[in-house]
Design a protein that fits this description.
It is a single chain. The protein is largely without helices or strands. The chain has a domain of 27 residues. The protein is flat and about 60 Å long. Pfam families: gerPA. InterPro entries: Spore_germination_GerPA (IPR019618). This is Spore germination protein.
């Protein structure tokens, strides 16, 4: 039995790496996400208090996140 979902409005405050909003009939295949993050004290989410923090982050590599992504991802994308 087909069902109907109705959105009056979609509000997006923030999108991060490897994120999408797909509305309607869509096919999203073969996604890859490659990134590098260096957090000295971690990641602050929500209400946070930090006092008297000293961080040293040594990142001595010459190239950040070298990527050799040669994978092949075939897909069948048929829409009616």
């Amino acid at each position: 039995m087909p069902s109907s979902i109705v959105f009056n409005m979609i509000n997006i405050n923030n999108q991060n790496t490897n994120a999408t909003i797909g509305i309607g009939e869509n096919v999203q295949s073969s996604w890859d996400s490659h990134s590098k993050n260096n957090y000295g004290t971690g990641e602050f989410i929500g209400n946070s208090i930090s006092v008297n923090i000293v961080n040293f982050l040594y990142d001595n590599d010459f190239i950040d996140a070298p990527i050799n992504d040669q994978d092949f991802k075939p897909t069948v994308a048929t829409q009616v």
